[in-house]
Design brief:
The complex is a heterodimer. Chain A has helices spanning about 65-70, 90-110, 115-140, 160-170, 175-200, 210-220, 225-230, 235-240, 245-260, 265-285, 290-310, 315-325, 335-345, 350-370, and strands at about 10-15, 25-35, 40-45, 55-60, 75-80. By secondary structure, chain A is α+β, with helices and mostly antiparallel strands. The chains are: A alpha+beta, B alpha/beta.
Chain lengths: ~375, ~450
């Protein structure tokens, strides 16, 4: 958390709400700390060409990352001419080191799930999945105590989910018919979570460093550039294990399917999913040849997410085509097949020859994977 | 229209009939259920009509005790009296009423003066007093039963406690009756009303009292009485309201509430206030709301029960234990530094952190009345942070004390020390009614 007086001497981009400069975003100098309330902090600001002018004030909400961070936020910079001895004045390299240390500390001590809308949506989605998959069995008395080991829950159950379940129970936010069921789920989670996690039978996304890093990016703590810089930092890579990449891919799939359904804010989920694809591709690239499959997957799913937005079909086909060269290993064949099928449907009318070529390859993959002839993809009419 | 609504335990029906007839003989129109209820009419509706059509109510307690007092009827009568200061409520002891009858009445009923028929329903003096009460006139003014021959009216247990509490606040002996009368009168007038400027102020009344702090103490004490009796006062400016605890208690107790009076309310924040008030009413009716401010001031021992709501008013201090320092290791430097800017930021970090699991519970330690040390646990998610509370919480980080008032459930820790878990609590800007030295933590 930043000492409020340290903001004095920094430059902030701001859009005035009144006066002749209304609506225009431009940079201002924060030249005075004026006070702090329960929800916000007030500073005096001045135009850069008249830095002692105290004509305007700015109110920064305390929940904005810039207020919460120890490192100067990327949207701000020190006015080095007027404040040469400012405590936050440092080289970009020193700042990046400080920022990486801060984000790594936050990832260890905080649950970013509650800060990111897309992550919170996944939490809600997990509640629905739990009710759909297991509530009937619970009512019929046939639900086994090991239901938490179900593959569909493997990445989703953690202490944040347990907290949320207890919250909806305590706040009466749940339909009465599911109350007993979720009471049972909470009880089982309390009892089993530590051992399931220790044995590796569950792999909560929230324990994945990529999930944490992406979360702080989505919550506005770090820019795109900083996201990739931290991802390639030795400190971050020291906590990243190869299985984290496959595990992180599950986040992309979950965001995609939640965005395809009845989400509160599908665009937030799509944005998060695209950023996750970019991060996965970048990190997979750091591991070289070993992660061609992850690179191919991230390109493929990014294109799928763009397809959801139905905006730029050319960008989708370019993305899908770019995925193909990376999905060339035997283990990647099912995904390569799916990319080909997506491309066939895109090229059906615009590029029929290319479509035929891809359908032919898709059929060959189906044959290699042992799919019975009657169930294989048919020719385009 | 009727002059008096008669509320009684059905087992005392015979005595009540005789008394009703005596009243009718004296041209008083009593509302007695068996005379007035229309066959087939909804009982509840009929009662409500009877109460609405009467200008006073008599609570009759006989040999069968106070069974009927727990019903919705009691609340209807008290509600009417709260809203309408001219509506008179008269507790009546019938022949055979137990000596401790007063102990079983709703707290508020003990504010009123008793009419005692325990020596027999033929007691002309008591009948005269009852009729005077019903008509709202002084018993001495009618002359049929000279006041000087009347036996002294029994002082309620509440009044005795109140007198003792007022003395403890430092009011001079000769002013005690006046102060007690003032407090009772003001509570009655102001209940469920925010009309703070009605009637004389205690400092105008007790001119002889020179000590300003004593008068401040009476004001604070009076305020606590209102908080206790009108719990909705706490909801408007609360520091804390735990929907979790209220929902849990409501789920547990709603099935026991009278279904015609209390309906099952669904979840959601909008119903939390209502549920709290219903719970308060339910526990009040069963005398399970413990620690009336009078009792607090008298230093009544902390009960060993969890099946109750406890009213508390005390001075608390934030506990900064090992768990706190492990979560906020950098806080020490900020707390110890003389500047205030960083402290406010630390307050945000501690009490408004977006991760609910970072620092879930706030622990306070304090005294709720002379000598009663308690621990209080607040869930951080239910703290209401606005400008006043933010300032107080920031100061609390530097071990400044907070005056808090509210309702809580009470648990006893395995070590035997009491733990309060509030449903509702608010910051109090008034000085506590017990002295600072007693509140010394």
């Amino acid at each position: 958390m930043m000492d409020r007086t340290n903001f004095v001497g920094t430059i902030i981009p701001f859009t005035l709400e009144e006066g002749e400069k209304k609506g225009k975003t431009q940079e201002y100098l924060i030249n005075q700390f004026m006070g702090e309330g329960a929800e916000s902090v007030v500073f005096g600001i001045a135009p850069l060409d008249d830095p002692t002018n105290n004509k305007w004030v700015i109110k920064l909400h305390k929940t904005t990352p810039a207020m919460e961070m120890d490192t100067l936020h990327y949207s701000l910079r020190v006015h080095e001419g007027l404040y040469p001895n400012h405590p936050l004045r440092m080289s970009p390299q020193d700042r990046m080191r400080k920022l990486t240390g801060e984000i790594m500390r936050r990832m260890r001590t905080e649950r970013v799930t509650f800060r990111v809308e897309a992550y919170s949506d996944l939490l809600e989605q997990t509640l629905i999945v739990l009710a759909q998959q297991f509530a009937d069995k619970y009512e019929a008395g046939t639900l086994q105590n090991d239901f938490l080991k179900s593959p569909i829950l493997r990445e989703s159950i953690d202490d944040s989910l347990l907290y949320r379940i207890q919250e909806v129970l305590d706040e009466d936010q749940i339909e009465p018919r599911y109350r007993d069921f979720f009471g049972f789920v909470a009880e089982q989670m309390e009892r089993q979570l530590p051992s399931l996690e220790a044995s590796g039978e569950i792999l909560p996304l929230s324990k994945n460093p990529l999930y944490g890093l992406l979360g702080f990016h989505l919550a506005g703590f770090i820019s795109d550039k900083e996201l990739f810089a931290i991802a390639s930092d030795a400190e971050f890579r020291s906590v990243l294990k190869p299985f984290h990449l496959d595990n992180f891919f599950q986040l992309i799939a979950m965001l995609f399917y939640t965005a395809s359904g009845h989400a509160r804010n599908p665009s937030a989920l799509r944005t998060a999913a695209i950023s996750a694809c970019d991060l996965l591709e970048y990190v997979a690239g750091l591991y070289g040849q070993l992660n061609r499959h992850s690179i191919g997957l991230s390109k493929f799913w990014k294109a799928k997410i763009c397809l959801l937005e139905q905006k730029d079909p050319d960008a989708v086909s370019v993305g899908l085509e770019a995925a193909l060269p990376f999905l060339d290993e035997p283990g990647s064949l099912p995904d390569r097949h799916d990319v080909l099928i997506e491309l066939v449907s895109l090229y059906e009318t615009s590029k029929p020859d290319r479509a035929l070529e891809y359908i032919d390859e898709a059929q060959q993959i189906e044959e290699r994977l042992g799919i019975p002839e009657g169930q294989r993809t048919r020719e385009i009419k | 229209m009727f002059d008096v609504f008669l509320s009684y335990n059905s087992r005392d029906r015979d005595a009540v009939r005789i008394l009703a007839l005596k009243l009718r003989d004296k041209a008083v129109r009593p509302w007695l259920d068996e005379w007035e209820l229309v066959p087939g009419d909804a009982w509840q509706k009929g009662l409500a009509r009877g109460i609405a059509q009467s200008s006073s109510a008599a609570f009759l307690v006989g040999s069968s005790g106070t069974g009927a007092w727990e019903g919705a009827e009691t609340m209807l009568v008290l509600n009417r009296s709260f809203r309408d200061p001219s509506y008179r409520v008269i507790p009546v002891l019938l022949p055979g009423a137990p000596d401790d009858a007063a102990e079983h009445l709703p707290e508020f009923a003990s504010l009123f003066t008793w009419i005692d028929f325990r020596s027999g329903l033929d007691d002309a003096n008591a009948l005269h007093r009852l009729i005077s009460g019903i008509r709202g006139v002084s018993p001495g003014a009618q002359g049929s039963a000279p006041i000087e021959t009347a036996r002294p009216v029994q002082q309620s247990a509440f009044e005795s406690q109140l007198a003792a509490a007022v003395k403890r606040l430092g009011i001079s002996e000769h002013n005690v009756p006046q102060a007690v009368a003032w407090i009772i009168g003001q509570v009655r007038q102001r209940i469920e009303s925010d009309a703070y400027d009605t009637g004389p102020r205690i400092r105008d009344l007790l001119i002889a009292e020179e000590k300003e702090e004593v008068l401040d103490g009476v004001d604070a004490f009076f305020d606590e009485l209102l908080n206790y009796m009108v719990p909705s006062r706490l909801l408007s400016t609360s520091l804390y309201i735990s929907s979790q605890k209220i929902n849990r208690m409501y789920r547990a107790y709603a099935p026991l509430m009278n279904p015609s009076e209390f309906s099952q309310l669904p979840g959601g924040d909008e119903n939390v206030d209502r549920k709290f008030l219903l719970l308060h009413r339910y526990f009040s009716q069963r005398r399970q709301v413990l620690f009336l401010p009078v009792q607090l001031l008298a230093g009544q021992p902390i009960p060993r029960t969890s099946d109750a709501l406890v009213y508390f008013a005390g001075t608390f201090e934030l506990v900064l234990d090992d768990a706190f320092w492990s979560v906020f290791p950098h806080a020490r430097a900020m707390i110890e530094s003389p500047g205030g800017g960083e402290l406010f930021g630390l307050m945000s970090e501690v009490f408004q952190h977006p991760d609910p699991l970072v620092y879930q519970y706030v622990q306070l330690s304090g005294l709720i009345g002379p000598g009663h040390r308690v621990t209080m646990l607040l869930s951080r998610k239910y703290l209401h942070i606005e400008s006043m509370t933010a300032h107080t919480l920031a100061r609390a980080l530097r071990r400044h004390r907070m005056d808090l008032t509210g309702f809580a459930s009470l648990d006893i820790s395995p070590e035997g020390s009491p733990i309060l878990q509030p449903l509702v609590c608010k910051l109090s800007s008034l000085p506590r009614f017990f002295s600072e030295s007693e509140a010394n933590i």
